[in-house]
Specification:
Pfam families: F-box, LRR_At5g56370. About 20% of the residues lie in helices and about 25% in strands. The protein is α/β, with parallel strands linked by helices and about 400 residues long. Helix 8 links the parallel strand 15 and strand 16. The radius of gyration is 25 Å and the shape is globular. About 25% of the residues are buried.
Length: about 400
């Protein structure tokens, strides 16, 4: 029941002790922590009890839309809003700070953004998520952030293409996600020494013409690794020059999502690697020998895995090479085939070829993808066909 008392909106029935106002602050703050800050601020009019709750919310979430950033004036208002929130926040710890934008917007003011980062460090921020366009030439990492002791998760998503400085040290960081352009010198063993506790890593790689990027991942505690390779110039051959070295003896889950066939070298692979997902987007009507060999080398290195996930084009590529006898997935007991196109329903040879290379397979899961007019089911939730062998 909702009613107005003294000009304010009351929630619940206070006479019967059932008002939300009777809940302790810790529960109210937990509820508010799931909301964006623009909605959290609106709750201050619910009652006098709620007026100042927003200054103690543990999660500061700012999610901007195209309309929020369509003009510099509107963007300035947003930045003023963030300034105020951080200035008045009275909790000694900020659990999560998230700033995202749905569009490739105008750049944030680097000076003000850096002041936010410094303020977050003072509040012992634990999780930081940024997906917002930045002026790469002007932005410089604050020293207090790249040596932050409180940070546990750092998500720098696709719109935030900013190089790390030469020296970083996050002693307690366990989850890292970032995007990188031409990772020749910046992503190497010395870089990963700055993340001694790293357990989960997502790298989004973008390569431009004329480069031979190298990613050298060395992380002894790493358990989950996802590598996304994006080449917007599919007609150029330079994308094939990328090289990835992986030294992660405790790796359990590996995801490779790429538009070409990089060279992968996995060192110190142990029995801890349980789940592998491979989505190599190849033109299965024509695959050059070099790319074919690289994909086969990768699959051979991962042939001892127990849980294997293959996407449509990867599976059909394997079938087309007609060389399953050269290697066997001897330990695979669980196979997932994702986003299979309707052609696979009429031509079973691809599927049979894969199954023949897995002698102890126990379970097969498949998700189908089909197109009707302009509708593409691959954009929707998977429809699973489940089968126990």
């Amino acid at each position: 029941m909702e009613r107005k008392t003294d000009g304010r909106m009351m929630v619940g029935d206070e006479k019967e002790g059932r008002s939300i106002n009777n809940l302790p602050d810790s529960i109210l703050l937990h509820i508010l922590s799931f909301l964006e800050m623009k909605y959290v601020m609106r709750t201050s009019v619910v009652s006098k009890r709620w007026e100042d709750l927003w200054v103690s919310v543990p999660n500061l979430i700012f999610s901007l839309t195209e309309s929020d950033v369509k003009s510099q004036i509107r963007l300035d208002k947003i930045m003023n809003f963030v300034d105020r929130i951080l200035l008045l926040h009275d909790s000694p710890k900020i659990q999560k700070f998230s700033l995202t934008c749905t569009e490739w917007s105008r750049c944030l003011n680097c000076y003000r953004f850096n002041s936010w980062l410094c303020s977050l460090v003072k509040h012992n921020v634990e999780q930081l998520k940024i997906d917002f366009r930045m002026d790469v030439q002007q932005f410089k990492w604050p020293k207090v952030l790249v040596t932050c002791k409180s940070l546990v998760e750092l998500h720098l998503e696709q719109k935030f293409y900013v190089r790390f400085p030469s020296y970083v040290y996050f002693p307690n960081l366990k989850v890292l996600q970032f995007s990188v352009i031409n990772p020749r010198e910046s992503i190497n063993q010395s870089f990963f020494c700055g993340f001694p506790m790293l357990e989960s890593l997502i790298i989004d790689v973008f390569v431009i013409e004329g480069t031979e990027p190298l990613i050298d991942i060395s992380a002894p505690k790493l358990r989950k690794l996802k590598i996304i390779y994006a080449d917007e110039f599919d007609d150029f051959p330079f994308g094939h020059n990328i090289k990835v070295l992986i030294n992660a003896p405790n790796l359990e889950h590996l995801i490779i999502d790429t538009q070409c066939g990089p060279w992968y070298l996995i060192k110190n692979q142990s029995s801890s690697l349980v789940r592998v997902e491979i989505n190599v987007e190849l033109d299965y009507y024509y695959v050059d020998d070099d790319t074919s060999n690289r994909v086969l080398v990768l699959l051979k290195e991962l042939s001892d895995v127990k849980h294997l996930v293959l996407f449509d084009q990867t599976m059909r590529f394997l079938a087309q090479v007609n060389d399953h006898a050269r290697f066997t997935f001897s330990n695979v007991t669980y196979l997932e085939l994702k986003k299979l196109r309707e052609v696979c329903l009429y031509d079973h040879s691809d599927l049979f070829g894969i199954l023949q290379s897995m002698p102890i397979l126990e379970s097969l899961y498949a998700s189908l993808s089909f197109t009707v007019g302009d509708y593409d089911s691959s954009d929707e939730d998977d429809d699973w066909i489940r089968c126990t062998i």
